[in-house]
TrEMBL record:
<feature type="domain" description="BTB">
    <location>
        <begin position="22"/>
        <end position="124"/>
    </location>
</feature>
<dbReference type="GO" id="GO:0097602">
    <property type="term" value="F:cullin family protein binding"/>
</dbReference>
<dbReference type="GO" id="GO:0031463">
    <property type="term" value="C:Cul3-RING ubiquitin ligase complex"/>
</dbReference>
<dbReference type="Pfam" id="PF02214">
    <property type="entry name" value="BTB_2"/>
</dbReference>
<dbReference type="GO" id="GO:0051260">
    <property type="term" value="P:protein homooligomerization"/>
</dbReference>
<dbReference type="GO" id="GO:0005737">
    <property type="term" value="C:cytoplasm"/>
</dbReference>
<dbReference type="GO" id="GO:0043161">
    <property type="term" value="P:proteasome-mediated ubiquitin-dependent protein catabolic process"/>
</dbReference>
<protein>
    <recommendedName>
        <fullName>BTB domain-containing protein</fullName>
    </recommendedName>
</protein>
<dbReference type="InterPro" id="IPR011333">
    <property type="entry name" value="SKP1/BTB/POZ_sf"/>
</dbReference>
<dbReference type="InterPro" id="IPR003131">
    <property type="entry name" value="T1-type_BTB"/>
</dbReference>
<dbReference type="InterPro" id="IPR000210">
    <property type="entry name" value="BTB/POZ_dom"/>
</dbReference>
Length: 211
C-alpha cells in the first residue's frame, strides 16, 4: 500500500501502540494518513467526527494495522484533510474542484462545501485571455458506462478528469465501480463561427446542470 502524508510515521507508531488516542490512522483507498482526533472533529456534523467518536450508527471497519478503512479516492482526500487542519482550501495542480466538492459532500463538511462551490463559481465566470470562458460539468456513471460516454461526447465537450468515487462500503462484494467524469466546454466563440448542437451535447449539459 502507498504511504502518504505520514511523515515520522514509524516514530508515531510507538505513541499509537502506547494507547495515546490523540493520533488517528486512516486507510483511504489504500493510502495511509496520520492525523489527530482534534483535526478530524473540527466539524461536529461531519462523517469524520462520527467516525472517530465511534458512532454506533456508523458502520466502520479497521484494517490489520488498526487504521479506519474509508473507500474513497485518497488524492482528493488530501485537500479535505488539509482544510480541517488549517481552515484553508488548497488545491494541488491537476485536481478538479468538482472532485473536491464530491468528497466534501461525502464527508459532510459544510464550510468546505461552501468554499469549493464559490471557487467553482468564480472559475466559471472568469474569461480566458482570449475572451472565452470554460464551463465545467460533472457526470456520474458506472464503470460499464464510462467508455461509451467518453467516446460519444461532441459539440465541444472535452474530457478533463476521471475520479473514482468507489462503492458503498460493501467490502468484499463485487460491484461495478462508480466514477465522476469532469468535462468542459469553451464558450465565447468568435462571431461568424457557427457551432452545431447535437442531442449528446445537450444531454451532457442538462445532466451536469442537475448535479
Amino acid at each position: 500500500m502507498a504511504e502518504h502524508d505520514v511523515n515520522s510515521l514509524d516514530n508515531k507508531q510507538t505513541i499509537l501502540k502506547n494507547g495515546n488516542k490523540q493520533w488517528v490512522k486512516l486507510n483511504v483507498g489504500g493510502t495511509y494518513f496520520l492525523t489527530t482526533k482534534t483535526t478530524l472533529t473540527r466539524d461536529p456534523n461531519s462523517f469524520l467526527y462520527r467516525l472517530v467518536q465511534e458512532d454506533a450508527d456508523l458502520i466502520s471497519d479497521k484494517d490489520d494495522t488498526g487504521a479506519y478503512l474509508i473507500d474513497r479516492d485518497p488524492t482528493y482526500f488530501s485537500p479535505v484533510l488539509n482544510y480541517l487542519r488549517h481552515g484553508k482550501l488548497v488545491i494541488n495542480k491537476g485536481l478538479a474542484e468538482e472532485g473536491i466538492l464530491e468528497e466534501a459532500e461525502f464527508y459532510n463538511i459544510a464550510e468546505l462545501i461552501k468554499l469549493v462551490k464559490e471557487r467553482i463559481y468564480h472559475r466559471d465566470i472568469q474569461p480566458n485571455k482570449d475572451g472565452k470562458t470554460h464551463v465545467y460539468r460533472v457526470l456520474q456513471c458506472h464503470e460499464d458506462e464510462l467508455t461509451q460516454m467518453v467516446s460519444t461526447m461532441s459539440d465541444g465537450w472535452k474530457f478533463e478528469q476521471l475520479v473514482n468515487i468507489g462503492s458503498q462500503y460493501n467490502y468484499g462484494a463485487e460491484e461495478h465501480a462508480e466514477f465522476l467524469c469532469v468535462v468542459s466546454r469553451e464558450y465565447g466563440v468568435p462571431e461568424g463561427l457557427e457551432v452545431e448542437h447535437s442531442d449528446r451535447g445537450k444531454v451532457l449539459q442538462q445532466k451536469g446542470s442537475r448535479m
